[in-house]
UniProtKB/TrEMBL annotation:
Protein species of origin: Alkalimonas collagenimarina
Pfam hit, one: HTH_1
HTH lysR-type domain boundaries: 7-64
Family: Belongs to the LysR transcriptional regulatory family.
TM spans (from-to): none
Name of the protein described by the UniProt record: LysR family transcriptional regulator
Gene3D superfamilies: 3.40.190.290, Winged helix-like DNA-binding domain superfamily/Winged helix DNA-binding domain
Amino acid sequence: MPYRPKTTVEQWRILQAVVDAGGYAQAAALLNKSQSSLNHAVSKLQNMLGIELLEVKGRKAFLTQAGEVMLRRSRMVTQQVEDLERLADTIDKGWEPEIRIAVELAYPKQYLYQALQAFYPESRGSRVQIIDAVLTGTQEIIHEKRADLVITGSVPKGYLGEPLYVTRFIPVVGKQHALAQATQLELTELSQQLQIVIRDTAQKPQEQGGWLKSEQRWTVDNFYEAIEILQLGLGFCWLPDFTVQAGLADGSLQVLNFSSGSEKLAPLSLLSPYEEQLGPGSKLLRQLLLSVHQKETKDIPCKINSLSN
């Protein structure tokens, strides 16, 4: 006889919510369900499996050793079900009504806008939502599959990305800053200076990249807010080359001069969190974006030749 499951996907989703939220009461508020219904669902799940998954200590629920193993596997199952439902939705609707593209702030959007300009006549009325993301915020979007396309500075394990662009991060200050005219600086000298940093957009940000050794830091939402502060003569910041061109040209910003190289390179890639369920509109926009960069790469020799003449 064919195997008949003892448990339901909904029961596993409830277990995941209880663990992720840290307790039954918190999960009930998150799922808009009664706490008693969640208790009943998890209790029935444990009874059907014949093993204890959770133990309650005080007001918090903790996974047992067996629960940790089962929860890990259950996330894979619920994700597969979600992917199947998305695939069915894509097949049913055909051309998607909305396309979400998450973009790391370190990426120059001029290339995306060129792709969107070519996409518009073919878009069939699809709405396009552009989501700005920074650092681990971009990773969260990928793992939670909150966008159709993502331009990211780090491709997580299990995903494949198409290389797009390499951004150079340059350390700069305003022309009024005490370090503006200094030469042969050491990186250690910056530890006592005010550093301007860009806010990580993750719900649970993790400081795992960049130079963050200053005793005093001010955090802003984007590079252009950072530039406005720098131009007042306050602080220093590593900024993408394309954001500081105007400031360097008019002299309001100055590059910090170090005894050893201080530029940082950030390779950016394009990926889709759920490749198999990607709709035709998203596929077209992806191809157009890749084409923009392919054209840019072909034009580089011409630019070099024109500079050398």
